[in-house]
Amino acid sequence: MVAPAAEAFATSPSITAKELDSARRPILAIATHTHIIANFSIFVLSEPVVSLRYVFRTLKDGGLAASLTRKRVWLGATIRKAQRAVRPGTRRPASKVAIVLQESLAAKAMEDTVFVRAKMTILVKGDSGKMSTEGWSAFDREKWEAAVDGALKEEIDAFGEGEV
Fold first, then answer.
1. Which of the residue ranges 2-6, 11-15, 148-152 would you say has the lowest mean pLDDT?
2. Residue 142: its pLDDT value, please?
3. Which element (helix H / strand E) includes 59?
4. Do the domain assignments include residue 148?
5. Alpha-carbon distance 123 to 51, whole Å?
6. Where are the alpha helices (DSSP H) in the chain?
7. Which of 2, 27, 45, 58 has the fewest beta carbons closer than 10 A?
8. Is residue 105 part of a domain?
9. Count of domains in the chain?
């Protein structure tokens, strides 16, 4: 993802795309940025809180940092469990649906950092259930919500509530 961004902005004197390694945390100057928008999953870093503090220290006073992230990058297996609970013989591939985090989970991830929570917004585009049950009968669609709840419960039991 970094290479295409670097190519796209190669002629811009004010935009630099750089891949950072959270384990090595290359030296970035303190208080250099007014805004940081990071599209990465802090939950896959070995030390997410340390990494967030590192990002924070690069902000100028009054600077704004936005982290666009999901707790688990892909929950396709969970969607498949729900699909199979309703229609065990289905061969339909899992739709590319992201299960959006509850606000409390995202807030929990930030509670040990130095960031001040100004505003948190969760955006959802489309109807996930509708895409995952496309072509199903009304009878099967009525079972979908309970099947998703069951699959999520299994996910929570397997990985813990803060991991889903």
1. 2-6
2. 92
3. strand 59-68
4. yes
5. 24
6. 2-8, 48-57, 76-86, 103-110, 128-132, 138-142, 144-159
7. 27
8. no
9. 2
Whole-model pTM: value is 0.39
Interstrand relation of 59-68 and 33-39 (parallel, antiparallel or unpaired): parallel
Q: Is residue 135 part of a domain?
A: yes
Residue 129: domain span: 72-100+122-163
Q: Do 61 and 91 share a domain, yes or no?
A: no
Tokens of 7: 């190519």
Q: Which residues contact 41 (CB under 8 A, 6 or more apart)?
A: 69, 70, 71, 73
| Tokens found for residue 161 | 């509530």
- Is the domain of 32 the same as that of 96? no
- Span 95-107, mean pLDDT? 44
Same domain membership, residue 82 and residue 48: no
Q: Which long-range contacts (CB under 8 A, 24 or more apart) does 124-132 make?
A: 124/100, 128/95, 128/97, 128/98, 128/99, 131/95, 131/97, 132/79, 132/82, 132/83, 132/94, 132/95, 132/97
98: which 2 tokens? 């992201």
Question: Is the domain of 14 the same as that of 39?
Answer: yes
Evaluated on CA atoms 135, 78, 142, 97, the torsion sign reads negative
